[in-house]
Design a protein that fits this description.
Elements lengths: L1 H7 L2 H20 L5 H25 L32
């Protein structure tokens, strides 16, 4: 099971498996092996499992910053006290 999990973490493997999910379940449905409702559920499950591997890979390739700043030294995120005022009359 660990080898399968490791293989699914690699992008080419995920693309290959994901490319087989749709046609495989269409074929299984056309032969009457599973119903269309169940095929949709299995495709959703397979897609979700493959996305988890991609999210894990993306997480390992990023480096979190303790205090992200732009090039001019400003915070790289929006703080509530730095948001511009909204003209409420404009939106009514």
């Amino acid at each position: 099971m660990a080898r399968i999990a490791a293989a699914l973490r690699r992008r080419p493997t995920r693309l290959y498996v994901y490319g087989l999910l749709g046609p495989g379940f269409i074929l299984a449905t056309s032969y009457g092996l599973i119903t269309a409702d169940k095929a949709a559920l299995w495709i959703s499950l397979g897609g979700a499992l493959l996305v988890v591997g991609g999210a894990e890979l993306a997480q390992t390739k990023t480096t979190p910053l303790a205090d992200p700043r732009t090039r001019d030294g400003q915070p790289a995120y929006l703080r509530p006290d730095t948001l511009p005022e909204v003209d409420s009359e404009r939106w009514t």
